[in-house]
Design a protein that fits this description.
The protein is of the alpha+beta class. It has one domain. 23% of the residues lie in helices and 19% in strands. The radius of gyration is 14 Å and the shape is globular.
Length: 78
C-alpha cells in the first residue's frame, strides 16, 4: 500500500457491506466487493476472505468495469 493511501482496520473491513455477484453460483466461487467510507472499493476472494483485500479507487474500478463490459477480459474466464 502506498503511504499516502488511507489505512483501514480489520474491524472496518469486517463491518463493510460485502456483496458478491449473483452469477457466482452455489459454490460461491467469486469475488466480493465492498464500498468503503473513504470512497475506495475493497475486493476479496469470497471463498477465502482472510487471504487479503485489494483496494481500488472508484475511478480505477470504473475503468476496469468498462473493460469488462467491452470484453477485454473475456479470455480470463472459461
Amino acid at each position: 500500500m502506498n503511504s499516502t493511501e488511507p489505512t483501514i482496520t480489520q474491524a472496518e473491513l469486517n463491518l463493510a457491506m460485502w456483496r458478491k455477484s449473483s452469477f457466482s453460483g452455489d459454490q460461491g466461487a467469486c469475488v466480493e466487493t465492498a464500498p468503503l467510507a473513504d470512497g475506495r472499493i475493497a475486493v476479496r476472494n469470497s471463498k477465502h476472505p482472510e487471504a487479503g483485500v485489494v483496494f481500488f479507487t472508484r475511478r480505477e474500478m470504473a475503468a476496469w468495469l468498462r473493460g469488462v463490459k467491452a470484453g477485454e477480459f473475456d479470455d480470463l474466464s472459461g
